[in-house]
Amino acid sequence: MESDGKGLHSVTTMTMRFSSTEAAPLPMSPHQAAPDTMDAPSPGPPLQVDDEEFQRLSEVLTLYHAKRALRRVAERNAYPAFALLSVKTGGNAISLDMVTSNWPTDPCDTLREAAGPGAELRTRLAEAISPFYLTPDQAALIAAPTPFVLCLPVYNDVGRGALFFASERDDGDDAHAALHLYAIYIYARVCALTRPRLPATALAPREIDCLRWSAAGKTSGEIAAILGVSENTVNSYLAAAAQKLNAVNRVQTVAQAIRLGLLP
User: Fold this and answer.
1) HEC letters along 145-203
2) Which CATH class is domain 49-194?
3) Taking a C-beta distance cutoff of 8 angstroms, is the pair 108, 115 a contact?
4) Residue 158: what pLDDT?
5) 3-state DSSP: the chain helix, strand, coil percent, rounded to 5?
6) Consecutive 10-residue runs of the chain (264 residues): their mean pLDDT?
7) pLDDT value, residue 149
8) Are 79 and 101 in contact (CB under 8 A)?
9) Are the beta carbons of 152 and 161 closer than 8 angstroms?
10) What CATH number matches the domain at 205-259, 3.40.50.1820, 3.40.980.10, 2.40.440.10, 1.10.10.10?
11) Contact 4/12 with Cβ under 8 angstroms?
12) Over the Cα atoms of the chain, what is R_g?
């Protein structure tokens, strides 16, 4: 990966220019045969993610921050839409879930159809480690707003995902290094945010009792009668549990405790 001197990671194309002292090429004679091959179309602009964007990954503390970061990168590279998905496979089944996106529609359902058992797309989503482009039919199937859709496979110890960018161009195989690295980093950041974490301070037995009865639909007064304590004591136990689990209300506290397997 090379830096362009302004902190930009990009793949550059070197061109040769005629200097003012060099003679201009002679015009082709009318009797001279035209070359057998035509020049290849010019590649699109190099994909860029600057050093500052990598440094700002530490600011991604919520899915909203992740969406905002991906929008900045998409706009910088003239991509009108992006979609970050999680990919899970088991047997012949494939599970695709939206993480964050500004795609015109949710592409998950149609992607599941296109990635059925034995489909090439399923294999790529489940196993690919290098960027690739969807076929025109696949791009149309997920209602892409552009002719091309770039897929960046992302993966870590938690699982796999895929970051899609809608594009007006095919940038070629050598243009994705910095963007792919950034995609892997931001997916790791998102996974770290959503991974269940045990509280730094363990819940007390009474706090677990209060949460267990609260999960059963009991009110604070009913829990107090069951445990033989005051209602204020029950509320203080629930408040302490909420603080330890970084929850904002009783429902979220119970949900987080269930998610972490803390309730018997």
Assistant:
1) CCCEEEEEEEECCCCEEEEEEEECCCCCCCCCHHHHHHHHHHHHHHHHHHCCCCCCCCC
2) alpha beta
3) no
4) 78
5) 40, 15, 45
6) 40 35 41 38 60 89 93 95 91 84 90 84 92 93 94 89 94 83 92 74 93 91 96 96 89 84 79
7) 95
8) no
9) no
10) 1.10.10.10
11) yes
12) 27
Across 25-92, the runs of DSSP E, i.e. the strands, are: 49-50, 81-90
Answer yes or no: same fold for 49-194 and 205-259: no
What is the per-residue pLDDT across 156-181, written as a single tens digit (0 to 9) for each? 877 899 999 999 998 876 778 889 99
In sequence order, what E strands does the chain have?
2-3, 8-10, 49-50, 81-90, 93-101, 132-133, 148-155, 160-167
pLDDT of 173: 67
Kind of pairing, strands 132-133 and 148-155? antiparallel
Left if phi > 0, otherwise alpha if psi is -120 to 50, otherwise beta: which for 118? left
* Contact between 239 and 203 (Cβ < 8 Å): no
CB neighbour list of residue 55: distance below 8 Å, 6 or more residues apart: none
pLDDT of residue 227: 96
Give the domain ranges of the chain.
Answer: 49-194, 205-259
CB 187 within 8 A of CB 194: no
DSSP state of 16: -
Give the pair of three-digit tokens for residue 39: 């020049």
Report pLDDT for 48.
76
User: pLDDT by residue (tens digit) across 207-233?
Assistant: 999 999 998 889 999 999 999 999 999
